[in-house]
Amino acid sequence: MKKEKKMFTTRLDKEIIKKLKVLAAQKDKPANHLLEEALLDLFKKHSK
Question: Which of 24, 25, 36, 37 could covalently link to 31 via disulfide, CB atoms 3.0 to 4.6 Å apart?
Answer without folding.
Answer: 24
